[in-house]
Amino acid sequence: MDLQLNGKRALVTGSSSGIGEAIAKILAREGVSVVVHGRSQERTNRVAQEIIADGGKAEAAIGELDTDETAKTVAEKALSSFGGVDILINNAGAFPMHGWMDSTAEQWVQLYNANVGSMVRMIQLIVPQMKELGWGRIIQIGSGVGTQPFGGQPDYAATKAVNINMTVSLAKELAGTGITVNTVSPGPIETAGFDEILLQMVKAQGSGTNLEEMKAQMLKGPMSNPAGRLGTPEDVAHLVTFVSSPLASYINGANLRVDGGWTQSIN
Q1: In which domain, by residue range, is 199 found?
Q2: Which of 48, 173, 232, 252 is most exposed, with the fewest beta carbons within 10 Å of its own?
């Protein structure tokens, strides 16, 4: 299937590793010129160079998105790299291991800034140019915990619920502009960050359980799903790529799950 993405230009925030890296690479394979974004120059340049080595087009944009000034620098780099941005993938964010009683209100506010404020900044900086083009795609990377939170990580789950909500509002705000806005919400996905969290859990147990045993336990317990496996970054990236395409013009304001059926919801 030709996704009609050849020649489009994308900014994928937080794409120096994990899900963002997979999204950037798969978009590039469809002919999209990709601005790879990250905080680490080494990791970000690596992803950009790997895309180029694979025959794609990529530029690197380095910087934080937690202040107006630094976010503007990233947006300006993205807009100038290939003459504009057609596709904005808001993927950057943090997922600290906080519980209700070991986090402060200030930490909640800081995480809100990282996971919500960063998206708001990039939307406000990129959308005006999309309006001029009369076409655009904005995709927020959410999470299954945005609609089905655990007892732990309540601050993270709250920010993901906001991401889902803001997508619907923005889709309505941009009605008639040719720009669609959607959320893609992954379930348990095997990334380096996911493995790090599981290793912390292994350490906390103080037992002989190793990482693979912990994954097996999770699949029998809280991460059980009809697909019977954990997801991969590519599972998420394939859906994001389709929703980024002209073929997905009637998908708007949606929260699309990539979780093997993990979320206990009919939506």
Answers
A1: 190-230
A2: 173
167 and 203 belong to one structural domain: no
Catalytic site residue 250? Answer: no
Q: Which residues contact 231 (CB under 8 A, 6 or more apart)?
A: 186, 187, 188, 189, 190, 258, 259, 260
Catalytic hit among 90, 118, 145, 156: 156
pLDDT for residue 202 = 67
Q: Rounded to two decimals, what is the model's pTM? A: 0.95
Dihedral sign from CA coordinates of 257, 261, 263, 267: positive
Q: How far apart are CA 177 and CA 139, in angstroms?
A: 16
pLDDT digits (tens, 9 = 90+) for 98-116: 889 999 999 999 999 999 9
For residue 67, give both structure tokens.
């202040």
Three-class secondary structure assignment of 102-140 = CCCHHHHHHHHHHHHHHHHHHHHHHHHHHHHHCCEEEEE
Q: Specify the long-range contacts of residues 214-220, CB closer than 8 Å, at least 24 apart.
A: 215/190, 218/188
Q: Tokens standing for 150?
A: 């655990």
- The structure tokens 């630094």 sit at 70
Asked whether the CA dihedral 121, 85, 8, 174 is positive or negative, the reply is positive
CATH number at 45 reads 3.40.50.720
Spatial neighbors of 132 by CB under 8 A, at least 6 apart, are none
Identify whether residues 127 and 207 lie together within a single domain.
no
Same domain, 175 and 195: no
